[in-house]
Design goal:
With 70 residues, this protein is mainly α. Helix content is 50%, strand content 0%. Helix 1 (2-15) runs antiparallel to helix 2 (20-40).
Length: 70
């Protein structure tokens, strides 16, 4: 937010306008929210829509072996 807002402020000072600072702040907030969602994950899928091969806890199920094998 500070980087894009600062870039907008610099453009406003250079071109003597007042539009780029608010646009830069809003763009910075949008990028920050996107990065948080991308880093920490989005909303979990709806119940019953788990990907194949995974248990509901998100861990892969153990492979099935015959008795006596490890």
């Amino acid at each position: 937010m500070a980087v894009w807002g600062g870039a907008g402020w610099l453009l406003d000072q250079w071109w003597d306008t007042r539009v780029f600072f608010p646009v830069g702040v809003i763009l910075g907030m949008a990028v920050a929210i996107y990065l948080v969602v991308a880093r920490y994950g989005a909303i979990d899928p709806a119940p019953g829509q788990w990907s194949a091969g995974n248990t509901p806890g998100g861990r892969r199920s153990r492979p099935r072996t015959q008795k006596g094998q490890r």
